[in-house]
Design a protein that fits this description.
CATH architecture of one domain: Alpha Horseshoe
Strand content: under 5%
Low-confidence stretches: 14-22, 319-390
Number of helices: 18
Mean pLDDT: 79
Number of strands: 0
Distance between the termini: 19 Å
Largest sheet: none
CATH superfamily of one domain: Tetratricopeptide repeat domain
Length: 390
Amino acid sequence: MTGLIVAMGLLLAPVRAATPAGPGAPSREAQKAFSAAVNLYEQAQFDKALERFNKAIALYPGWKTAAAYRAMCRWTMGDLAGAASDAEAGLKIKPNSAESFVARGKARLVSKDYDGAAEDFKQAITLDPETAEGHFGVGAALSSKGDTQGAMTPLSNAIRLSPDFAAALLVRGTVKDKLRDFRGAIKDYTRVLQINPRFVWARFYRGKSYREIKEYRLALDDFNAFIEDNPERDDALYLRSNVKVLLEDYQGAVDDLTKVIELNPAKGLAYSNRGLARAHLGDRPGALTDLNKALELEPAKKAQIQAAIDSLSASPAPATGTAATPLEPPQEQPAPDARPAAPRKGESIAIDDDAQSAARPSGKSDSASGKSQSTAPEENKGADDAVFIK
């Protein structure tokens, strides 16, 4: 979902509309529509923003700069074909100013030409060292390439130049998450919410970070706020279910995972984790049904799921109304970075491929592209001490 975050960010960037240069320039009405579109995008009102971008381009057909911005809006809204078409127009820009280099950089980012985008943003900085958009663009391009450590300096430069630059704060927060600086990420997301309290995506990301530092109730508050506005986001429901297990709200976890399964019936891990939550509630038949369904849907995790089934089958049946004995995790040789092998009271036993994964905006980093080693304190590692099978 890194792409989505970067797309959000580039449209949240401060915009300096060009002044009319004559008959061949956008009219004041077109520029007004363009500025309104960017402001609406900043407020996360994507549909209305798209309407204004459409109006701006209708008033000045062939406006490549507006097309480059609209490409970001369409990309964020999932219209990949429309975004690609707009980006193609934006790529035809022949830059002659810092602003035009930034615009073409946006088009190149949508086209996943990260090196070309970075070069355009650097050219913008050469022409105008005080352009926050240029510094932000460099950071966004580096982040998209997986160079999280390298992205930090340009993103911080953008925020220094424009302290209320919500986009740069948002992206820097996600970069800090990848660097496992969860407390630093929380500060950035909180600042975004101070600037724009209605931007609930910041609460989603902040909730994930709170979860990593074991602030489960704060995480739950943020996930609740996000899901209230986005009730069909199965990824958010899935993460909230895990937090509920960590707070020993097993019925709440079952309810969330039931909704996840309704939205995504092929998600085997939702079945496995619902089964484990049902085991905590003493519902052995329901737990075994779910675990067997997970076994069918997740053949790659057959050993782990079968071990959970065997453990549950071998444990004494709980008395009516009492919780089941917590399952012992599979006894396997841990990987070098494995989390603790046995849960403690109040902690979850989960079969999960990535309980920390973001909603759609998440990118991967690898050593070849500049992945840095974590320097976060030990408390940030394996936040919930659950057993996650990756």
